[in-house]
Amino acid sequence: MRPVVCLVMVLSMDVLGAAAGVFKPPPAMYVLGDSTLDVGNNNYLPGANVPRANRRYYGIDFPGGVSTGRFSNGYNTADFIAKCIGFVSSPPSYLSLVAPASSGGLLNAGSTIPLSKQVQYFNATRSKMIVAAAAGSSNAVDTLINRSFFLLLFGGNDVFAFANAEQARNRSGAADLQSDAAAFYGSLVSNYSAAIRGLYALGARRLAIVNVGLAGCLPVARVLDATGACAEDRNRLAAGFNAALRSLLDDLASSSSGLPGLAYSLADSLGLMADTFADPLASGFTDVADACCGGGRLGAEAACTPNATLCADRGQYYFWDNIHPTERAAALRAQAFYDGPAQYTTPINFKQLVHMS
Fold first, then answer.
1. What does the pLDDT look like over 53-68, one tens digit per residue?
2. Hey, what domains does the chain have and what are their CATH numbers?
3. Closest residue by Cα to residue 60 from 335, 317, 293
4. Choice among 79, 268, 290, 321 that is catalytic
5. Is-contact 37 151, C-beta < 8 A?
6. Is 355 a catalytic residue?
7. How far apart are CA 170 and CA 168, in angstroms?
C-alpha cells in the first residue's frame, strides 16, 4: 500500500475581470489537503519511496497529455472548484514556488506534509505578502485574505492508517474498537480545530471543507476482501469522524467560539459517493470498484506506472488508480459541492460561501 502525500497550495491568483455590478470572484484561493487535491507538491518531497504522479499514465488527459503531479488522468477536484469560482487557473503547488532550503527543512524522506505544517506554510506566505505590500502594511493583505477562499480536505490518510493499525493489532472486539475510535476521533478533531483556529488567526474567514469519503470502498480497501466488497468497518470509521468534524465546525461557528465572522461549508464526500455507487449509471459510470490504471485484481494490487494496465474508457470509471478519482469523477464532485443538490453541503454550498458579502 502506498501512502497518500499531503499538500498545501497557496498563492494569490489573477481572477477573471468583472464588469460593474457583476459578481467578482475572491481575490485568492488557498488549498490545504491531501493527494486528492495535490497539483504537484509530491514532485518536490525528498525520498525514493514518496508516491509520485509525475510519470505516465498520470496526466494522460491533461492538456498536452503531461504528468503534472496530480494523482489523476487529468484535472482534480481542486482544479474544478477553482474553475467553478471563476479563476483562470488553479493555484500552483506551494513547494514549486519556494527553494528547498526555505521550505522549513522539516521534510524527511518519505514523509507527508501534515496539516500543522501546511498552516505554517500559509503563515510564511502571508508574511511574504506583507513584505511585498506597500510600506509593508498588513491591512491590505488582511483584507485580501479575509475575502479569499480556503479549501480543506483531510482525514482520509488518518482513517486508512488507523484502520490498518487496528487490523494489524487484531482489535476486533466491539469495546476495543469503540474505545480506540473515540481516542482517534478526539486526536484528529483536536488537530483540525487547532488548524482552523490557526488559519483564522492569520485572516482566513471562508472555509470550504470536504469530509472523508467511503474509505472502505476504495479499490485499495476492496482488494483486501476475497469478494471485492467494500470494507464496511472502514466506512463506519469514516462516518464517525465525519460526525465529529461536523460537530466541531458547528462549535467553531457558534457565537461562543471566539471566532466572529467565520463561515464554512462542509461538503459530504461520503454521502455523494454512497449515492453514486448505489446507482452508478445515473452518473454515467460503469465501474465504481476497479482502478482504471493499475494491475492485478480490481486494478488495485499494483500502482499506476508506465507498465500498468489502462482501462479503455476512463470516463466510465470512478477511480483512476487504487485511491484517487478520475478526472470525470473529480468534476462531478466539484459541481456537487459548489452548487449541486442541497444534501451534499451544509449549512451552505461552496457557491453561497463564495458569494457571501
1. 999 999 999 999 999 9
2. 29-99+112-355 (3.40.50)
3. 293
4. 321
5. yes
6. no
7. 5
Q: Rounded to whole angstroms, how far apart are CA atoms 231 and 222?
A: 6
The pTM of this model reads 0.91
Is 35 part of the annotated catalytic residue set? Answer: yes
Q: Rounded CA gap, 72 and 264, in Å? A: 27
Q: How far is CA 277 from the centre of its chain?
A: 20
Exposed / middle / buried, residue 342 (Cβ in 10 Å: 0-12, 13-18, 19+): exposed
Return d(Cα 237, Cα 143) in angstroms, integer.
Answer: 39
Could you please report the per-residue DSSP string of 205-260? Answer: -EEEEE----GGGSHHHHTTSTT----HHHHHHHHHHHHHHHHHHHHHTSTTSS-T
Give yes or no for a contact between 320 and 73, defined as CB atoms under 8 angstroms apart.
yes
As a whole-number percent, the residues of the chain with pLDDT over 90 amount to 76
**Active site (annotated) includes residue 279:** no
Flag whether pLDDT at 231 surpasses 60. Answer: yes
Query: Of 215, 8, 220, which is closest to residue 116 (Cα–Cα)?
Result: 8
On whether the CB atoms of residues 304 and 291 are closer than 8 A, the answer is yes
Among 59, 78, 61, residue whose Cα is nearest residue 70: 59
Q: What is residue 8's predicted lDDT score, i.e. its pLDDT?
A: 41
| Least confident span in 37-46, 106-115, 243-252 | 106-115
* d(C-alpha 177, C-alpha 165), whole Å: 11
Instruction: Report yes or no: 268 and 344 within 8 Å, Cβ to Cβ.
Output: yes
Choose from 19-23, 24-28, 98-102, 215-219 the range with maximum mean pLDDT: 215-219
Q: Which of 67, 72, 79, 324 is catalytic?
A: 324
Q: What's the pLDDT score for residue 1?
A: 30
Between residues 263 and 14, which one has the greater pLDDT? 263
Annotated catalytic residue, options 35, 67, 90, 93 = 35
pLDDT (average), residues 98-114: 59
Give the model's pLDDT for residue 242.
Answer: 98
Cell of 228: 471485492
The single residue listed with the C-alpha cell 452508478 is 280
Joined together, the cell numbers standing for residue 210 give 470536504
